[in-house]
UniProtKB/TrEMBL annotation:
Protein name per Swiss-Prot or TrEMBL: Amino acid ABC transporter membrane protein 2, PAAT family
Alphabetized PANTHER family for the sequence: GLUTAMINE TRANSPORT SYSTEM PERMEASE PROTEIN GLNP, MEMBRANE COMPONENT OF AMINO ACID ABC TRANSPORTER
One of the protein's GO biological processes: transmembrane transport
InterPro entries recorded: ArtM/GltK/GlnP/TcyL/YhdX-like (IPR043429), MetI-like (IPR000515), MetI-like_sf (IPR035906)
Family the entry assigns: Belongs to the binding-protein-dependent transport system permease family. HisMQ subfamily.
Recorded GO CC terms: plasma membrane
Spans through the membrane: 12-29, 61-90, 102-125, 263-283
Protein source organism: Desulfuromusa kysingii
UniProt membrane topology term: Multi-pass membrane protein
Functional summary from the UniProt entry: Part of the binding-protein-dependent transport system for glutamine; probably responsible for the translocation of the substrate across the membrane.
Alphabetical keyword list: Amino-acid transport, Membrane, Transmembrane, Transmembrane helix, Transport
Keyword Secreted set for record: no
Major place of residence: membrane
Amino acid sequence: MLPNHRPRWGQLDTVLLLLLLCALGYLGMRIHTGLEYRWNWQVIPQYLVRYDPVDGWVPNLLILGLFTTIRLSFWSLLLALPIGVIAGLMRTSNHLFNRLVGGTYVTLLRNLPPLVLIFIFYFFISDQILPFLNLGEWVLAAPHWLQQVATLLLAPSDQLEAFIAAIITLALFEAAYIGEIVRAGINGVETGQWEAGRALGMRRWQVLQSVVMPQAFQRMIPPLAGQAISTIKDSAIVSVISIQELTFQGMELMAATYLTFEVWITVTVLYLLLTYSCSWLAGKLELRLQRTSPS
């Protein structure tokens, strides 16, 4: 194991930083002088928040798109976790049938382009299955407070079916990768842990539940955090089915204002803030688990 030394700032780091700053400054100067583009940053804030005479300051297009991205990613990840855990457990099962089913699901979903899956599941789920449930009509017939809750947690009634189809599609896609994370975490636990549990008279599922999974979970935290961030980034593809998340709102705003660079730089910063927050929280959780776990 490599020694865990605290990194130190040296002269070479200073030189490299200065060279990097000089390169960035030169690049910025060349862009400013050579790019025939009129920057117009002062109009961007009004697309983040706007003033309403009744409600005061309220979110505008980009922040509303960010909220939709958060809701979409949250529900997709919440649905993907149990599906992925089941797929991972099936891939480590002693029964051949379970291994075949889990392996087929993971292999199929991981080797298909997500954009193709979006179209397949959207036209199958949203056009063939969800219309029979009449979810939009149920929401419209519900009390006003329940409609507000559904809009806050999911989407407006006219977008509900497409939003649910996007959640299911994204969840099934991400669950395939979570299944591989779970499988690798379980297989990473030493064989002696299994043997010790069996020596105590525990059944396989008891060893898995009480001995293996607690150890595997700590190893899964970093890749699961990475998958959560990947879910946020992958949510951008549902813009092709008119889900009004951050990327969709960015495209609409760019088409209306022609502020290409300003809009996409702002969208990039919003995505970066969201994904970095998830990474920071995952790091805190991993550090806390390391402190509380027995040495």
